[in-house]
Amino acid sequence: MVTTLRSESIGAGDAASAGPRVGVLALQGDFREHAHVLSRLGARVSLVRRPEELAAVDGLVIPGGESTVMDKLSRAYGLAEPLKAAVAAGMPVYGTCAGLIMLADTILDAIAGQQTLGGLDVVVRRNAFGSQNQSFETDLDIPALGDRPVHAVFIRGPVVESVGPRATPLATLSDGRVVAVEQGNLLGTSFHPEITGEYRFHEYFLGKVRDRSLAA
Q1: Cα separation of 208 and 59, whole Å?
Q2: Residue 76, helix vs strand vs coil
Q3: 86 phi and psi angles, rounded to 5 deg
Q4: Is the pLDDT at 30 greater than 60, yes or no?
Q5: Coil, strand or helix: which one is 18?
Q6: Kind and range of the H or E element at 188?
Q7: Assuming Cys at both sites, which of 42, 89, 95, 123 could form a disulfide with 162, CB separation 3.0 to 4.6 Å?
Q8: Do 178 and 160 contact (CB within 8 A), yes or no?
Q9: How do residues 63-99 score in pLDDT, each as one tens digit?
Q10: If we measure between CA atoms, which residue out of 201, 206, 203 comes closest to residue 190?
Q11: What is the pLDDT of residue 14?
């Protein structure tokens, strides 16, 4: 299926009715790739651009893209405050690359006026790995996802400069820089598992969505 900005939902075949309701923030970035991964894993996926669409889902993915543009558009569409409220209320949210920046409490090199949703007790640096032509791939050991290494692709990604006491690092590069972090129902990665066929982070996230739904 081809997903466009006008698509309201992406089904998961006959299993869709039983899957968790998950939104993908579709203001900018590679939301289509996330939507297809989540759909293949059995989720009922909706593209979120308005507050009422956010209210209809049990979890949210914030994709990679441009964090400054996402910030401006979220405020323009009236989504910023509902997103902050959802995070504060415990909605499971997974942010990749720009999505990680959006979830961070602090950005070291934010542009003038840039805001975040907050929630992750981390300090991040945007574009920590240089320009797009300096993108790279590497394998990461992530015990929370099993013994098999995760193949990670970094495209102008952020890095977690420091992790506060409420957050937990999940993955580091060989030089010790943190590139994946978790805090309660929040999950963030500097890299893009949605473009490599690496589904374990999305499965891990969906587990959080299911657990919260069962506890509600």
Answers
A1: 9
A2: helix
A3: -65, -45
A4: yes
A5: helix
A6: strand 186-189
A7: 123
A8: yes
A9: 999 999 999 999 999 999 999 999 999 999 999 999 9
A10: 201
A11: 38
Instruction: Check: CB of residue 1 under 8 Å from CB of residue 169.
Output: no
| Interatomic CA distance for residues 167 and 165, integer angstroms | 6
Amino acid in the structure at residue 70 = M
Structure tokens that stand for 158 in this block: 């952020």
Burial label for 118, CB within 10 Å (0-12, 13-18, 19+), is middle
| Residue 120: both structure tokens together | 């992750």
What positions carry a catalytic annotation? Answer: 97, 192, 194
Would you state the structure tokens that stand for residue 97, as one six-digit string? 């690359």
Kindly give the pairing relationship between strand 59-62 and strand 21-25: parallel
Q: How many residues does the chain have?
A: 216
Ramachandran sector of residue 176 (left: φ over 0; alpha: ψ -120 to 50; beta: rest): left
Amino acid at 104: A
Amino acid occupying residue 66: E
Q: How many other C-beta atoms lie within 10 A of the C-beta of residue 171?
A: 24
Q: Is 36 within 8 Å of 68 (Cβ atoms)?
A: no
Of 32 and 16, the one with more pLDDT: 32
Going by C-alpha positions, the residue among 169, 175, 209 that lies closest to residue 190 is 169
